[in-house]
TrEMBL record:
This is Uncharacterized protein. Residues 41-66 are annotated as: Disordered.
Length: 270
């Protein structure tokens, strides 16, 4: 699990600036190169026939969803946090993580968050504001999620410009859910459509779980197409291989302009 998150961290403005002179794989940015190099347990690429191209006017307007949505991490609880049984991410950590991704070293950009992030109190999660050198501001909304297969690990997610929709926000809620993150396509993928059909999304979600060593869950359906350009939740269902029970899952695309897509899959915690 942690390797997927660490690969995402290579996509910071500083990292991009340092790598501009490097040749890029066609159709993939730094996040695609870093994440796609991590082979899932299945080692398979979701089938291209599971993807569909959007028709004109399909889906909600981009203004209804965050401009960008991305995770940072992984983080591990401190001994003090583990002893207290509570997870409150301090302001300094939030500001550091956002600055790592969205500011250039030596720039006049500054990040300020409205408060710490109590993981178990989603209604009280803060926002952060990035102020650029010319005084322009951008707001980022904070979410803290438990990592699948790692009860002591957590990821910090930022949605830029707007909050996530309520279903997506609930899917990231600590304790109730755990998340896995993985690239949608591999380096060798010859086709990278921007919209996955329900069948293609189910195959991709299974690949995300496999890539994070999440075992015992079979994704059996996704309720609709997944637009990889929009951080909008799409619900689905998986079957627990041990109990045979069906459990709800939620898919949320990671959206970073100019980067190859990744996918968050939220599953019940426990």
């Amino acid at each position: 699990m942690t390797s997927s998150f660490r690969a995402l961290r290579t996509r910071s403005r500083a990292g991009i600036a340092a790598a501009l002179a490097l040749p890029m794989i066609a159709g993939a940015g730094l996040i695609g190169i870093g994440l796609a190099g991590i082979q899932g347990a299945s080692g398979e690429t979701p089938p291209s026939q599971g993807a569909v191209l959007p028709a004109a006017g399909d889906g909600p307007a981009r203004t209804e969803v965050p401009e960008q949505f991305f995770p940072t991490g992984p983080q591990e609880r401190t001994a003090q946090q583990s002893a207290s049984g509570e997870l409150v991410v301090p302001v300094s950590e939030l500001e550091h993580e956002l600055a790592q991704w969205e500011t250039l070293p030596g720039s006049a950009d500054a990040v300020a968050c409205t408060g710490p992030a109590p993981a178990r109190q989603p209604a009280d999660l803060p926002a952060c504001v990035l102020t650029d050198g010319e005084g322009g501001t951008t707001t980022y909304h904070v979410h803290v999620a438990q990592l699948a297969g790692d009860q002591d690990g957590y990821g910090i997610f930022f949605s830029r410009g707007r909050p996530l929709d309520p279903v997506a926000a609930e899917a990231l809620s600590y304790d109730a859910h755990a998340v896995a993150v993985y690239p949608v396509y591999e380096e060798t993928s010859t086709s990278m459509p921007e919209v996955l059909s329900a069948e293609g999304a189910a195959a991709t979600a299974q690949n995300v779980l496999a890539g994070n060593d999440v075992e015992g869950l079979e994704v059996i359906e996704v309720d609709g197409a997944v637009d990889l350009r929009q951080a909008r939740a799409v619900s689905g269902t998986a079957r627990d291989a041990f109990s045979g029970q069906e459990v709800p899952i939620t898919l949320i695309p990671v959206v970073l302009d100019g980067e190859a897509p990744a996918l968050v899959v939220s599953i019940p915690a426990g």
